[in-house]
Amino acid sequence: MDELFRFVALRPPMPVSDPIVLDGDSPLAAALADARREASGRDAMNRLAQSFVRSDDFVQDPSTLNLPLERLADALDRPDGSDESVSDLVERALGAPASGLVRSNEFAVDVARLQDTVLALKLAPPEDGDAAKVLRMLGAADVVRRLAADRQDVKATTKRVVLMPASIFPLPGPLAKAPPPVRPTDPAAEAAQRVLKKRAAAIVEAIQALTAAGQLLAGASAETPAVSRGAERHPPAETSARRATGSDARSALGTLLLDQATISHLPAEVSETLAELGIDPVTTTLPAMVKLLRIELGRTERMIQ
User: Fold this and answer.
1) Does one domain contain both 211 and 263?
2) pLDDT attached to residue 224
3) Same structural domain for residues 258 and 153?
């Protein structure tokens, strides 16, 4: 679909009712503000909220309140269309005028419980928690408070913005995990590790050198006549395996012994590694030497941390 033009609808600003301000003086709010200053403040605040949810002060059932604030919330949100004023709605639903209600201990306890319930729902909401219902009752209680303060702009509604206490929000970040402890260095252990790493590198070098020597010998055996011209009819038996040609050269590798010339051309480091491991290149076949070196390499690498 092609865009023909863009349309933006602008409306004038709509008046907004004053927010419901949680003063932070309720019991849970005061405890949360203290916990927020701890090193592990977030965890401490969550524990307090979870404990409050399990207590009798958490408002799960509106009938546990002293005043029928849910009835007042229903009356405010669903006016019957009569000319009844907001103050009359309050008096009819709660049985007393707003000015008398706000001075009662029952009203103060209900408001504190509702405010703490809102905070607990924010921090540790239970699966069956109903924040919308609690906010409606808190909005109804705030209508009573505003009427008692002779406010002339009180509207018959519980839909209000709620401002959380600045002493609690924003919540502190979760406690950062401590870095893993650094083990104290052991000079002897570090020296042993260096020796093992050096040994592993030397074994790898020896394997590479012997493998290269075997490849050269196999190629030379495939290209060079089996014996010299003078000994063409009677090749020495002890060197026949090294001088095999074609497919015989490949099968002869299994019993290939390095001659003195090849051994003398091995790097000094490789000869030292073979001597340290007790491998005699004169009496040990090339494949056997490589196999022994690989076994020793695996054993050495397992000891490296």
Assistant:
1) yes
2) 47
3) no
